[in-house]
């Protein structure tokens, strides 16, 4: 009877029943979010937001209310996830029908008052978003677009952009990630080999920085510029 109360709800359920309900709902939410994919995590559309809010509301009520049915909560969670996946499919096929379209708020330096009113964006909202994008003067902005995600994309006028390496006829500088060579005193031999290096080279570089043993070092990384980052 106690297990039946845990799943179907009752006026009173034991404390361990609340723990079971919380654990099952938690795993159901994890499965549902994994099923819905990256879109739900990023909340890229209005229906994604509604799905997240709805699922969390259902889960919260079922966790704290003993009379609420856990079984119906699990059904609702997976039904929400299924509907979200279905709408995501429709959004790919007919994006204009399902999702919101981008709205131009500033075009060629001029503010679109009608679009501002239609999208309920105030001047303070717009100026705040421009500042966050590094555009402190309206005269710098060529375009500002309200994206379906609710964020504002900003494109500055070409004469306000910083000079690039190409414009200065400088060679291209390629970005790369640091290569981890040592972690917690353990040498990553695979990374050393892939870089054409060996343990003797690593020990010599560490000795130059005052480290006699690799085991004394917490982290060593070879940075893109060729320097060695060492932390003890």
Automatic annotation (TrEMBL):
This is Uncharacterized membrane protein YcaP, DUF421 family. The keyword Zinc-finger does not apply. Coiled coil: none annotated. It comes from Desulfotruncus arcticus DSM 17038. The chain crosses the membrane at residues 13-33, 45-64, 70-90. InterPro entries: DUF421 (IPR007353), UPF0702_alpha/beta_dom_sf (IPR023090). It is found in: Cell membrane. Belongs to the UPF0702 family. It is a multi-pass membrane protein. Residues 96-222 form the YetF C-terminal domain. One of its GO terms (cellular component) is plasma membrane. It comes from the Bacteria. It holds the Pfam family DUF421. Keywords: Cell membrane, Membrane, Transmembrane, Transmembrane helix.
